[in-house]
Structure formats: C-alpha cells, structure tokens
Automatic annotation (TrEMBL):
It holds the Pfam family MTS. Keywords: Methyltransferase, S-adenosyl-L-methionine, Transferase. This is Release factor glutamine methyltransferase. CDD domains: AdoMet_MTases. Methylates the class 1 translation termination release factors RF1/PrfA and RF2/PrfB on the glutamine residue of the universally conserved GGQ motif. It comes from Devosia riboflavina. GO terms for molecular function: nucleic acid binding; peptide chain release factor N(5)-glutamine methyltransferase activity. The gene is prmC. Its EC number is 2.1.1.297.
Amino acid sequence: MSDEVTVGALWRRWRDVFTEKGVGTATLDAKLLVGHALGFNALQLAVRESELVSRLLASDVTKLMQKRLTGESVARILGHKEFYGLEFALNEATLEPRPDTELLVDLALKALPKSGRFVDLGTGSGCIPISVLANRPDARAVATDINPRALEMAGRNAERNGVANRLHLRQGDWFGALAPLPTPPREGEGAASGAGLDVRFDLILSNPPYISSEVVETLSPEVKDFDPRLALDGGPDGLGPYRIIAAEAARWLKPGGKILVEIGYDQGEAVSNLFGAAGFSQIAVEKDLAGLDRVVSA
Ligand code: GLN
C-alpha cells in the first residue's frame, strides 16, 4: 500500500482539516500553502491536480499546515503580503500590512503636493511610503523605525518595488530618528549651509501602535502571537505614540503641511483632541470601507 497522494487530494485534505478546526478561509489557505510547498502558482495547482506528490514534499506541506493551525497567518508563513497592489516581504519585526491601511495611502496620495516630500514614522515593512512613492514618481520620502530589523525589510521592499533611490531610511524613536533641524540663519547671514531649511516635510504619515496594552492581550492568536508587540501596543490607553507625535509634528512640517495618522475605530475624538491641543487646525476623521473611523488628518 502506498500513501502517495495527488496534488488535488492533498490540498483538499488540508482544506477539510482547516474547516474542521474553524480556519475561516480554509480553501484559500490550503491552496496557497500547498502551492507554496510545491512551487506552484494557482494555475499550475489547477492543471496539475492529478500529479502525484512525493512523500518528502507532502511532509513539507504538513509542516506548513501545522504552523497555520497554531494561528500563524498564511502571509507570515509565506513571508510576504500584498498591499496596495504591491508585494511586501515580512519578518518578525514588521506588522502584517492590513487592507484598512490602504485608506492612509489613498489620502496621502491626494494630500501630497507636486514633487512633495514626506516622512512615515514607524514604517515597519515600509508598505505605506513605498506604496505612495510607487504611485508618485515625483515624490521623495524618509521612513523611520526604532527596530533595525524592520528597516532591513523596508529597504528590501523599497528595492523590490523600484523606489529605493527616493526612500531614505532612518533608525530611531519617532521624530528622534530624524537629523536635528538646522537652526534658521541669523539676520544678515544668508541661507543656512547644506540642506538648509528644506528638511521640513509637506506631509507626515504614521500608523503607530494604538491598541491599549490591556486589549492587546485579548487579540486573536494570529495577531497577538505573531505580529510584533512593539507595533501593536500603544501603552495604557493606546494613545501614547499620538501624544509624542502630536507634540512634535508641527515643527517638522512646512507651512500648510499636513499630518495623517491611522487610528483605532474608537479613537477619532481622542486623537483629534490631541492634535487640536497641539495647535493643529482643519482636523478631520476619515472612515474606512467598513464605515469605521480609521484616519485622523490635521
Ligand atoms: N489595525 C491593527 C489591528 O487591529 C493594529 C495596528 C496598529 O496598532 N497600528 O490589529
């Protein structure tokens, strides 16, 4: 007797296991993971259904499937995720890009002036600035992250998506990652040397950690056990990073510049108030496709 199995039987077998264990997207996940182990795309998976899979490969498939059953997402297992129509590599230091965050990119593309320059604070995989730059060949950006392992991914993703020459990476905490602003020239001294006053930005972007420490503990295993805690936990009330960003943002913006931050569905008012208290005007809360508050602009 042989335990050899066909391609089609293999993914169906795992689809049934996933269904039984309550994995929401059982068919898709089973196909993606079998395809990954065999090196097949979706089309090959369909047309090569009746080919036999070697035992060695079937055991590779089993390993991937067991990871999925611990709650690890398919994107994390495969090590990449699609966002804004582009492909992003992930590692343990990067949040898995969420479709909700595409709203921030849409709004940034609208807000950015011609040949504009922007910064993304806490960039992780770099999905936000890279998506903006890929759609705006005239734009330039700085992306910061406190974790060098995240910046490694952002750099690789910028290369892969052809925008590395327009994205500058800086390591550090929020605005602390940026070089200090030069002091303005004194009367009669002319323009400051070097980059001069042009270090301010037209636009500041951020999707900071915004979940309260207490709530982080209650998230699904897929998020809590596999997304980096540093990218989720916004402190006791989830607003810690916004306080820092709001307090410092104005001096990094050109006159008339704008800031856009992603927020949790129930943080619209609190984050608007923080920006109001920091002297910002024209504060608005934007809703995502699900009708939930998702971005604050100021
Ligand atoms: N939107 C993410 C979640 O719900 C959180 C991302 C973040 O904290 N910036 O898991």
